[in-house]
Amino acid sequence: MQERNTLQKRIVHETLIRMCNHPTADEVVAEVQSTYPTISRATVYRILNKLADSGEALRIRINNGADHFDHQTFPHYHVHCSSCGKVADVTMPVKELGSMLSDTSGYKIQGYSLQFDGLCPECQENEEIEAGA
Amino acid sequence: MQERNTLQKRIVHETLIRMCNHPTADEVVAEVQSTYPTISRATVYRILNKLADSGEALRIRINNGADHFDHQTFPHYHVHCSSCGKVADVTMPVKELGSMLSDTSGYKIQGYSLQFDGLCPECQENEEIEAGA
DNA sequence: ATCCCTAATGAGATTTAGTATCAATAACAA
DNA sequence: TTGTTATTGATACTAAATCTCATTAGGGAT
Asked: Which H, E and C letters describe chain A, residue by residue?
């Protein structure tokens, strides 16, 4: 017997799919607990890790902050707003970055992580308002 | 009076320069304490943060693990060995990644972080030995 | 339908990396 | 030499995530 189809796994996965805003693990915990209050934080973390490991979800590692999760697994990147912390999708092909490296470093490249930091449209507006005042 | 030239700052910076292996903050703490045992962990963290903020050192954010520091500040990237955790330099121009994004996402891009993961030459060897045995 | 094995869960302790607090210390300008 | 205050050291604290382990429940076997 290998992998059991538990209620908790179904709920966490469904919840992640329903939340389209790249939630953190703790945000998923809160959301799941609103309908299933007895689920444990450790369980949600375990299930999200498993989803990320199996490729059913993406783990977005944010500089400094908590990991975010994305149920969309097609190849894309993320922008992280340095002001409000929001995470958004970016679809941009960046080809061959990894393979370009293999000969120069001696490392066998397994992957790379590319993450952008910036200001989201809302925070840009707020900045302008503050500057104007 | 703005910035004071303290013994601690000199020692931490010198130590970082002397350690060419992209140490973590705690590795710097250990190294400094070997000759100056009374220095505080908080002090080393503060000084490294200041060096990174002022551009006198680079902060290398490793997925999952502790930040590493690099006294070399010319533009380059890093490879992180997923097996032993070692960090190595990669010099490869990646131009315009940020500016390519500005129109597609609505974000005002302030920067990006690009980090490679792979196996260092030593760990590749170990892997082959294990596979052969 | 029941039993049994063990994967998975829940609760809480633990770890790791880093920051905050604050009294004591020590640069450095006067 | 002195006074101001940036900086330090010690420690408490926080955040994110993992670990531990007794208990629960999925699902194959009977």
From this structure: CCCCCCHHHHHHHHHHHHCCCCCEHHHHHHHHHHHCCCCCHHHHHHHHHHHHHHCCCEEECCCCCCCEEECCCCCCEEEEECCCCCEEEECCCCCCHHHHHHHHHCCEEEEEEEEEEEECHHHHHHHHHHHHC
